[in-house]
Amino acid sequence: MTLIRQKGWGDHLDSALDAGIDFVTENLILTRVIGLLLVGGIGLTTRGIISLIANQSNKALEAIRDEKIATLKDELKSLTEISSENKGRFHRTNEAIKAMITNLTPDITQLTPEQLTTIGIRDNVQNNQIYIVLLCVRKILELDQNLQYGEIGKDNERWQEFSDAIRKYQEAKGANTPDGVIDEGGRTQKWLEEDIRNQCLNPPDGG
What we know:
The protein has helices spanning 9-18, 26-38, 46-80, 84-109, 113-118, 129-140, 149-152, 156-172, 187-200.
């Protein structure tokens, strides 16, 4: 004769565990469940026990997932954040561009609103010499106008894109040692200023 023992709540709990409930923090979860069973005789049903354990497990999994996402974001940031070497190269270039803004401002202020419109400067930025010079720099270097100059000094990839364009420009100008950097008072700065005056700030009528 075969005897079949009636399963109790403990058997159902074991079955649930065997079915694949993933306990990331197994010891902590079981401790909480046992504590709930022992304190106050709360009378949890089998379904309630399994639900409680599953909820705790899900919370633990979500916490681990969030931690991994945060770690991945930090790793990506470390890969893209501008290096100290590139930061120094950007600083040199930025100083040269600030000097260019100063030197080109008289040329910009001599242009009428109509002339500025003709060369592609919108009405709302015609008094912004910084914007105009940076627009012209991107134009001469054949860069996408959507490239934000403020981001170049923060991101390795954006700096590299900007630096490669400078290097290509230097090579086209016949520089002996193209290095992808604009130095204040250097030949690359002077070349750019000249080309901006002749090509970017020069309306079609020559005026």
